TrEMBL record:
Gene3D superfamilies: Periplasmic binding protein-like II. Coiled coil: none annotated. Keywords: Lipoprotein, Membrane, Palmitate, Signal, Transmembrane, Transmembrane helix. Its main location: membrane. InterPro entries: Lipoprotein_NlpA (IPR004872). The chain crosses the membrane at residues 12-30. Belongs to the NlpA lipoprotein family. This is Methionine transporter. It is found in: Membrane. It is a lipid-anchor.
Length: 277
């Protein structure tokens, strides 16, 4: 019996090695397939509940979604460019265009989501005419939203810009400032928290809601709807939407009654718009 075992031992060893190899190949296949089956989207915190509701809907269609929250406005594009995530949802077209110009990233808009109004808000004053000389005004410090704030102040008649169509205007482009406004530049989301400390802020409705400082409808001046400021689903240009996962997610987003209810709650009724229409 010992002799027979020795005769078969090489065969047993060969079969064992083959099983191990097949097992490793199978594991890698399953792991890769699982990765292919998961759609990963980077978001900023205000969109967490909104996109999670859509993720729950498409889960029923076999699309598994992982949402990754980022606290700043640079990391989501880095993550998409590096292939760490499939897409992101936090920026509008002007922001994206400027980001690509600054970094050379190969990113583009895969689809259009919702957008919102922005406005000028004050805890201390009831009208813009009430603003005193040298009033302190909180505006975002990133180039795109800073320019958007200045354009809104121009439209409200508080300042005059050299070119009100310049999407990258800076305070250096102000040619008239009759109230001698003093600008306080802060991170975009922090303008809401400055509401209690300065005379006027440039406010985003969802951040005002999150900070619980004021009703977004209480703006002293609101911008008109401008589709270029709708939030985009952004991917690399060479992104392959396997099994139409992202396309399915976008379609659900654009047609979800629950998503619209959450937008009403998080932004305020009438404070958001459908950028894809």
């Amino acid at each position: 019996m010992a002799i027979q075992f020795k005769q078969y031992k090489p065969w047993l060893l060969g079969i064992t090695i083959l099983i191990v190899i097949l097992g490793l190949v199978g594991y890698r296949y399953i792991k890769n397939k699982q990765t292919d089956d998961v759609l990963t989207i980077g978001i900023s915190p205000p969109y967490a509940e909104l996109l999670q509701s859509v993720a729950n809907e498409v889960e029923k269609q076999g699309v598994h979604v992982k949402l990754v929250e980022f606290s700043d406005w640079r990391a989501p594009n880095v993550a998409v460019q590096n292939g760490d995530i499939d897409a992101n949802f936090f920026q509008q077209s002007v922001f994206l265009r400027n980001a690509v110009k600054e970094t050379g990233y190969d990113l583009h808009a895969f689809a259009v989501g919702s957008g919102s109004h922005v406005g000028l808000y004050s805890k201390k004053y009831k009208t813009l005419d009430d603003l005193p000389l040298k009033a302190r005004v909180a505006i975002p410090n990133d180039p795109v939203n800073l320019a958007r704030a200045l354009i809104l102040l121009h439209r409200a008649g508080l300042i005059q810009l050299k070119d009100s169509n310049n999407e990258l205007s800076t305070t250096q482009d102000i040619i008239a400032n009759p109230k001698q406004l003093n600008f306080v530049e802060v991170e975009g989301p922090q303008t809401a928290h400055a509401y209690n400390d300065v005379d006027l802020i440039f406010g985003f409705p969802h951040y005002l809601k999150m900070a619980k400082v004021t009703d977004p409808h209480s703006a002293l001046f609101l911008d008109p709807i401008d589709k270029k400021y709708a939030i985009l689903f952004v991917t690399r240009r060479d992104y392959q939407d396997k099994n139409q996962k992202l396309a399915t997610f976008v379609k659900a987003f654009q047609n979800s009654k629950q998503a619209q209810d959450i937008l009403d709650k998080d932004f305020g009724q009438g404070m958001w718009f459908q950028g894809w229409k």
